[in-house]
UniProtKB/TrEMBL annotation:
CDD domains, A to Z: Ferritin_like_AB (cd01045)
Annotated ranges, domain Rubrerythrin diiron-binding: 9-141
A Pfam family reported for this protein in Swiss-Prot or TrEMBL: Rubrerythrin
Source superkingdom: Archaea
Gene3D superfamilies in the cross-refs: 1.20.1260.10
Coiled coil stretches, renumbered: none
Protein name per the record: Ferritin
Family matches, as PANTHER family: BLR7895 PROTEIN (PTHR33531:SF10), RUBRERYTHRIN SUBFAMILY (PTHR33531)
Length: 151
């Protein structure tokens, strides 16, 4: 796998962060609960920051992108996802958001495992941890909304 393939993976990751940002902003405008509005606004802001971080990777010279190019884990094969739509029931929107966060977490974990530069490893592991936190928060909300009898 060459450096251009990795650039393509990072570009796809940027596209996914933009897609997630757009989704969270759109859903934020559709929900009426102020706490959910704040949550989706916060998640949109974090996805925007992820995009900026990934864009900074694209400005590096190819030789400075420190990946082990002898291994091919088919990371790009996992990047296909259906387009997000805000015309969903709130629970369906949460399910899609949870799935998106899981996919992003797995992608960043794979990128960390392919990296050989300690700073890149730390960056991708940090992004994976943030996405894991987003997923957990969304799962808590989903559980509370889907199973209100538990309260």
């Amino acid at each position: 796998m060459d450096t251009e393939e990795y650039r393509s993976i990072i570009s796809n990751a940027i596209d996914r962060e933009i897609e997630a940002y757009t989704f969270y902003r759109t859903v934020r405008e559709k929900v009426t609960d102020e706490n959910l509005k704040n949550l989706f606004n916060e998640l949109a802001g974090e996805e925007s920051q992820h995009r900026k971080t990934l864009e900074a990777l694209l400005t590096k010279e190819p030789a400075k992108l420190a990946f082990n190019t002898k291994r091919d884990y088919k990371v790009a094969d996992t990047l296909e996802t259906p387009p997000l739509s805000a015309d969903l029931k709130p629970l369906d929107g949460l399910v899609i958001a949870i799935r998106k966060e899981l996919d992003a977490m797995q992608m960043y974990t794979q990128l960390a495992s392919l990296s050989v530069d300690p700073e890149q490893i730390e960056l991708f592991e940090s992004l994976a941890a943030m996405e894991r936190g987003h997923k957990a928060r969304l799962e808590d909300i989903y559980t509370n909304m889907a199973f209100p009898e538990a309260w």
